[in-house]
Amino acid sequence: MCKKSSHFGEEIYVTRKGAVSARCGELGIIPGSMGAKSFIVRGLGNEESFCSCSHGAGRVMSRTKAKKLFSVDDQIRATAHVECRKDADVIDEIPMAYKDIDAVMAAQSDLVEIMYALRQVVCVKG
């Protein structure tokens, strides 16, 4: 979605890919990967980021590589504490295919304030 916005004294259109709005005081959610924490955050309105922050951890490997590298047994072990699908069709979502969400949150501490950290209990993947 493209949204008209004011930045650096100009009216511009901002399109966010892999990011969400983090205007000053704006509440948002940053989901972790399957099995990782998620966060409720408050935007800090950092103009240099166009008042944006990440919408999650981001991948460290492609879906194809994850499917080749990991097994269903790996998926079962990695998500033992989460109610979720544990079959070959979701191996590409294994937690090890994603960046560490705590490191991601630390890297964007100038963009958002963490209000709450949520422990994942259920993960739904279509």
TrEMBL record:
Its cofactor is Mn(2+). It catalyses: a 3'-end 3'-phospho-ribonucleotide-RNA + a 5'-end dephospho-ribonucleoside-RNA + GTP = a ribonucleotidyl-ribonucleotide-RNA + GMP + diphosphate. Its EC number is 6.5.1.8. The keyword Cell membrane does not apply. Pfam families: RtcB. This is 3'-phosphate/5'-hydroxy nucleic acid ligase. It comes from Salmonella enterica I. PANTHER family: RNA-SPLICING LIGASE RTCB. One of its GO terms (biological process) is RNA processing. One of its GO terms (molecular function) is manganese ion binding. The active site is at 55 (gmp-histidine intermediate). GMP binds at residues 31-34, 38, 55-58, 125. Keywords: GTP-binding, Ligase, Manganese, Metal-binding, Nucleotide-binding, RNA repair.
